[in-house]
Every structure is written in structure tokens, then in C-alpha cells.
Amino acid sequence: MENEFASNYVKMVFDCFADDLGHQKQELCQRLLRKCPTPLAIKRLTRVEKREICEWAPEMKRLFAAIDLGQAVTKSHEDIIGHAYSSVEVGQEMVARFQDEEQENICIACTDVHNDIIAWKVLFIGGGSECVLYPDKIFQYALQCSAHGIIMIYNHPTGDIRPSSQDDSFVRRLERGCDFVGINLIDFMIVGRDSYYSWQEDTAL
């Protein structure tokens, strides 16, 4: 499997350059593969390294532009305005949305009385390991949307979906706040790269 992946990567690099480059195509491919033997190596290139590679030939600048476009396409998603009838459905959709995200995001989905999602927003963006939560901003947005209920979604770029003691403490505060302002806390979800944690599912066990 690993050899097949490596072979596909080499082929993709080779296909990025036009055939009319002649011998230069082979030279650029070999030079890039020596510099970046894996896709991850390309992802980890610094700005300085990218500028240096772009000086090899005009084709390298076009290559990085194509990579940037591909990343933008990968990170683009349909607006999440739909139904919130099932934690499984919402959880799977959130996994698909955040599986390539490298920063922590705190999101809120607002629902109406029929559990239809009427609004969605990323409220906070953190680093690779933490994100500060501000409950007042959460309730402010929910009240502005006239939300009947809210779903909090919190992605973990590390892939670990186990709630921490801080997560447990926060969801309790969130639940008390929802009771106070008259909003239903439908769920609190932690999303990893291929799975999710649902507070609603956990408390129902």
C-alpha cells in the first residue's frame, strides 16, 4: 500500500508538468522529488523554500498555485443549513467538514423549534492544541438568531475525541446557561479526523 501511494505521488508530480518541456520536465520532476519526497514534505515547505523552488522555472510557480487551489477546494463545504434530527448524521457531517483542519474551531449551530438548523457560525479559532471559549459570545449569537436550541461543535486536530475535564466543566456551564436564557442545549460534539464524541449520546447511555 505504501509503495503504491509513493508511486501515485511520483506520477502526480510528473503529470503536473507539460510534455512540451522536453528534458526540462524530467529535470524539474526529479529535482522536486529530491526536495519533497512525500506530499507531506510539500505541505511543510516554508515560504522561503517555496520562493527558492519558484526560481527554478516559471512552471514551479504555477505548480504551487495549483496546489493552493486544490487546498481551497478541499476545505470548501456546503453551507450547513439543514436538519439536526440525529447526532449521528450531524457528527458524520462534522467529521467530513473538519478532518483536514489543522486548527481548533468552536462552532455553533442554531436550530428552530423543529430542530432545523437555521444558522451556523465558527465563533472561535485557536491553535493546534487549544481554543479559548467565551460562553457570553455563544449566547449572544444564539439570541440574535432567535435560536430554540444550539449544538456546539469543537474539533480536535489531534484526532483525540475524549472529552477533557475542562470540556466536562464547560458543557456543564453551557447547560446551566442554556437553562437560564431558555435555550435547549441539543448537543456538545468533539470532532476528530474520523470519529466524533456526542455528549447527548454519552448521557443517554
From TrEMBL:
It comes from the Bacteria. Keywords: Hydrolase, Metal-binding, Metalloprotease, Protease, Zinc. InterPro entries: MPN, RadC_JAB, UPF0758. Residues 66-205 form the MPN domain. This is MPN domain-containing protein. Pfam families: RadC. Belongs to the UPF0758 family.
